[in-house]
Structure formats: structure tokens, C-alpha cells
Amino acid sequence: MRTEIITVGDEVLRGETAENNTVWLSIALTAAGLPPSRETALPDDIDVIRDELSAAAARSETVIVTGGLGPTVDDVTRQAAIDAFGGEVEIREEIIVEIERRFIGLGVAMPEGYRDLSRIPAGAVVLDNAVGAAPGLALKAGECRIFLLPGVPGEMKEIFERLVLPQLASGAEDRRQVLRVYGLMETAVEERLTPLLGADELERLSIISSPAGISVYLPAGIDDGIAAKAMESLGDNLFGEGRDRLEEVVVGMLRNRKMTLATAESLTGGMLASMIVSVPGASEIFLEGYVTYSNESKIRILGVEEKAIEVAGAVSEEVCRQMAEGAGRISGADVALSTTGIAGPGGGTPGKPVGLCWMGLAQAGVTECRQRKIAGDRGMIRLRTACVCLDMLRRRLLGSMPVRDRESGRS
Known about the structure:
single chain, alpha/beta, Molybdenum Cofactor Biosythetic Enzyme, Chain A, Alpha-Beta Plaits, 3 domains, 6-stranded mixed sheet, 5-stranded mixed sheet, 17 strands, globular
């Protein structure tokens, strides 16, 4: 089955938005056994969109379009679809009734521009938008199924997962199992899997790296026994499957163990706490987080010794240790995490270069600190540090991370 993705928006082509709908959809479709054969970005030009929709419907069985469904003058995807597939229009007043109901719930009047959203291609199925206002649409052109989805990522993802993917996955026979890995490089993952797979399977193996871990797409139709051996070969570096995220896994482990967590952050500036609270149910385990960016705040809030900062500096094992211990002590959490480091682009020295990071974990009177030299720009260094910190905790909860006292040195 040929599947393609079309993204609409001048802002995408001009780089004015960090558009990630195409990447997200590609991952979701590939995991469902429907890897896209084509991905296209188009401007807000009704003629260009119309022509591309017509061409896509002729060459593919499934076309997913994001963007251009809203109420503003540059949202022309609906009209382009009407023009591309016969020109007939259907007025669906229930769309406006639902949008008005939502605006009333917000205590404001619905802008008149939304009324045009009731004009849809004749015969299209309305895909309810549970997150925003503009609904998605599903229609057929010959043998091709076309799904028009909002460009807002949160709205697009919700509609796709709830209403589109079930339809597509039901006809897919080529699903791929996705393994989520942290703590290994891509080459190390490949080395572990190569002895288990045949030449044809290796050609269809995909290993994709990101700051939040590696996604391993096993070949479709792989034998269950081989898949089990592949998972076993990855050891405790395997943290999940499908779309599992490190923070989801860690929060789940803490909930299962009825343990609580606190954070003390300097380098990551609240990013670690934000990742944790992005997970539903985090309120059961997360007590509080401290962003102690200045040396004074580390001393005043967390009880870090002034002498430790004077002697070793804020970016040091000792300060990292005292930050974690301070967060655990004042919050009463079962476990506490800490981060400190140099995110750059300035501030580095020969002894403490940009990218030098310390992560700490304090639990039950024992504190573990790890040093890493992390490459990347400022944002990448902060994100990778937060992920390493989460993985430290995951391994501790698994029992695979060695526990050392302060006299025994670094891990």
C-alpha cells in the first residue's frame, strides 16, 4: 500500500515553525506497517494544493494531509480538496454547533470566520476534533483514502491516533515491532542484533537515534523467537517498546513501587521536572522540584555548603551530590535527582569545557554522581543531561546501577 504525507503551510516552507508533523506521522505509519512512500511540503496556494491532491490520489492508496483547515484566509486546504475532487460542497451545520458550544464553554463568542468550516467536500466524513476547533475530514477519491487533519500538532496527533490509525492499521499486514533503547550507540545496537538476523532482515532493520534514545524498527514479519532474542541481547538498555518514553517508564516504575521523587536542577533549568510532569499520573510520585541556577540559591535553598562551591566550583561532583541530598532532605522524597554543568556556548574552561555535566541520584542515605561530557548545542546538552538523569534512576530501580558510597569514587 502506497501511503504519502502532505504538509501545508507557508510557515513550514519558510522555516517559521518547528514543524514535526511529518516526522511524527512517518514514525507512526512505519510502526503500523505503512511506511510513507512520499512526503511533500506545500505553500498556502489553493492551486498548488489542488493539483498535488489530484496527483496524490492517482498514485497512492492513502494520503494524509496536515494544515490549512482553520478559519483564516490562508487556510485553503478544504477548498482545494473541494476543487480537486468534483467541486461539490456539503454544508454541515453540526460542525458550527459543536464549535460554538466549545467557545461558549470558554465564555467567549465564536468568531464569525469559523462559520466557513461547515463547507466541506460532498460525502466527506467529519473527524471530530477533541482538542481544538477545526475538525478533520476523511474522503475517498476512487480507490484512494484521503485524510485532512489540522496542522496544530496536538490536534493532529489526537485525531490521527483515535480516528485514522485504527482504520489504516486494520488493513496493514506489515507491522514492525519497535524497541526503545537507551545507553548504547547505534553501532553497538547493530552489533548486538546482526548475529540474530539474516541478510534480508538486516536490510530491513532500521536504527534511529535521538537525544531521548534509540528506536529499533525490527523487520516486519520477524519470527517471535528471534524478536525475543533481539530484546534479550539489548539487556537493561532496552527500556520500552512502541512509543514509550524514558519519563513515562520512570514514572510508571516509581508508581508501581509507591516511591516519591524530587529534583534539584541547575544546568537543565526545570527541564527534568517538566519531562516528569508531562506524564499522566506524575502527581502520584513527584513531590517538588527546585531550580537553583545561581550559587546563592544552591546554598540558600538546598543547603549546599559555600565552601564546596568555592573549592570545587558549582560544576563538580561534590556540589551535584549536595544538591541531590538537599532536595531529598527538604522534600522528604524517597529519591532525588540533581543536575549541574556547562551548557555553553560560553563559560567553558580547559578544565571544565562546555558540555561537562554532572548528574546525581540520592536515595536511602546513598548518593551516586555521574560525570558526562555531552556534545551538542545548549538545548541538546540540557536535553541529553535530563535523559541521562532519568536513565540513571531507571537503572537504579531495576537494580542494575551500582550503588557506591562517597569514598568509592565515580562510576
